[in-house]
Each structure stands twice: as structure tokens, then as C-alpha cells.
Write a structure and sequence with these properties.
The complex is a heterodimer. By secondary structure, chain A is an all-alpha fold. Chain A is about 65% helix and about 0% strand. Chain A is globular, with a radius of gyration of 20 Å. The chains are: A mainly alpha, B mainly alpha.
Chain lengths: ~190, ~90
């Protein structure tokens, strides 16, 4: 098979390994799984290198392959661990609402200007921590929607859930993330006057 | 009149689909009089923005920060690629 002259596969692991790994880690939150995805991506790329058109960069092409591998991984996981009762259960904020569904203790003022928050990169670490504490179904749905940026119809196919259930899952996931951030980040910085 | 419980659900839903007009108006009216739900909405938007920032902090290929492939995974991957080239 002709190897397009611009593809030097011997440097792939050094050049793109960590990059692809970071991409997979953010989405899978599981080191062994992310490492497997990177390996599978390189193997698939070797096999399919004839299809590399050179229209995009090598990195973009590899990420494209990795995206498919990750979607397959989510699909497998969804089959192995279908929706649980808790994924669709009680509203995470129910304990802070009265019988008529109105806030008794509402969301706290987070304060600070979002731009300042990001300058302290720490909020991103806290965010990842909170994300990793969600149930797999909540975290996976949120990741596909907000980090991977997929549309809901596509996510329903990957996770094998109805659109109505997906809305509920995403609502639960966002509410739980909000609670976690409020406790972990804003709760702890409030005292520091930031 | 929508409850806060309804509104928090609809606020999340509005980030995933466009709500029917009646619900959209109901939510907006509620937000005018409920500072907690208005705050909740701002915080959900901040959460969305944070997720996007996270996705964008990938760095460039070759840039090293954050987590890296383990030495073993690196070796294993190289070996499997060599094998696949020969096969």
C-alpha cells in the first residue's frame, strides 16, 4: 500500500499520543479506557492511512478517528449499563423546595465575574471533579452534549434513550453539577471574599 | 403559574431544544419575579460556558501539560503498531 509521503507513522505516538490522550481523558474520565482509545485510534489510522486526504491536518484527522472510537465506547457502555432508577429519579434540588415546588433555600449568589473565575484555572479542575462524581449516565450525557457538543438526536442514538429521558437526564446532571460547584467552589471561596 | 421546580426543568430543556411558545413565555414571566430561578439560569449558562472552556483547553499537539500517556501505554501502542505494520 502506498504511504502518502507526508505521513510518517513512526513519530505518531510521540507527536500526537498525549494530545489524543488528553482529548479522550476529558471525555471518558478513565485512564485505562482512554489509553485503549488512543491505541485503537493509531491502529485504525495505520489501516486507513490511504484515506488521509491531506485536506485537514494530521492531528485533526486523528481526532476525527478518535471521536468515532469514543462514541463506540459510549454506545458499548450504554448497552452494558442501561439507565438506572436514580438517573431519572427525584429532582436534585427537591430538598430545597417546598411542597408546591418553590425554593425554600434558593441557589446562592456565586459572586465574582466569570472572566476572573477562568483566570484562576482552578475552577476547571473543580468542574472536572464534580463531573466525575456524577453517575456514569449523567456524566456521559452531559459530556456528549456540552463538551463534545453533539445534538440531542445523536446523543439519544449513542446512549439508546428517548429524547424525553435525555432531557430529564441532562436536567439532573446540570442540577447536580450546580450543587457540587456551589458546595466545592463557591462555598469555599465565599469566605475569601473573591 | 409555573413552580420553581417546573422552571428549573424548563431552563435546562431550553438549552437542548427550543421550547413551545407558551412555555417560553411562562418561564420568562417567572424569571421576572423569581430571583432564585433567574440566578439558577445564570449559573446553568456559566456551567455550559465552563464545559466549553474545558473542551478548548486541549492545547496543541506536542504541547505537554496535564495528564500524559503512561510509559507502558506508550510502549504498548508502539508495539501494536509495529505488529500491525508487519501483519
Amino acid at each position: 500500500m502506498a504511504n502518502p509521503a507526508n505521513l510518517d507513522t513512526s513519530v505518531w505516538v510521540d507527536r500526537y499520543g498525549d494530545y489524543l490522550f488528553r482529548y479522550a481523558m476529558l471525555r471518558l474520565r478513565d485512564r485505562p479506557a482512554a489509553e485503549d482509545m488512543v491505541q485503537e485510534t493509531f491502529l485504525a489510522a495505520l489501516k486507513g492511512r490511504g484515506t488521509f486526504s491531506g485536506d485537514s491536518s494530521e492531528a485533526t484527522w486523528l481526532v476525527g478517528i478518535l471521536k468515532h472510537k469514543i462514541a463506540d465506547h459510549f454506545r458499548r457502555r450504554a448497552r452494558e449499563a442501561p439507565l438506572e432508577e436514580g438517573d431519572l429519579g427525584e429532582h436534585p434540588d427537591a430538598g430545597h423546595m417546598d411542597g408546591r415546588g418553590h425554593w425554600t433555600t434558593g441557589p446562592a449568589e456565586w459572586g465574582g465575574n466569570p472572566a476572573d473565575l477562568y483566570r484562576q484555572g482552578e475552577i476547571l479542575d473543580r468542574f472536572r471533579m464534580c463531573l466525575s462524581e456524577l453517575s456514569p449516565n449523567h456524566a456521559n450525557a452531559f459530556t456528549l452534549r456540552e463538551i463534545e457538543g453533539l445534538g440531542t438526536a445523536e446523543i439519544c442514538k449513542v446512549l439508546g434513550v428517548s429524547e424525553t429521558n435525555l432531557w430529564v437526564i441532562l436536567h439532573r446532571a446540570r442540577a447536580l453539577l450546580r450543587r457540587c460547584l456551589e458546595a466545592r467552589w463557591f462555598g469555599t471561596t465565599a469566605g475569601k471574599g473573591s | 403559574m409555573l413552580s420553581c421546580k417546573d422552571v428549573t426543568k424548563l431552563l435546562s430543556e431550553s438549552m437542548d431544544r427550543s421550547l413551545p411558545l407558551g412555555k417560553r413565555i411562562g418561564v420568562r414571566l417567572h424569571l421576572l419575579i423569581c430571583k432564585f430561578c433567574a440566578r439558577y439560569e445564570r449559573q446553568l449558562l456559566l456551567i455550559r460556558e465552563t464545559a466549553r472552556r474545558l473542551a478548548a483547553t486541549m492545547g496543541a499537539p506536542g504541547e505537554s501539560f496535564g495528564e500524559t500517556l503512561s510509559v507502558e501505554a506508550r510502549e504498548r501502542t508502539r508495539e501494536s503498531m509495529k505488529k500491525s505494520e508487519k501483519g
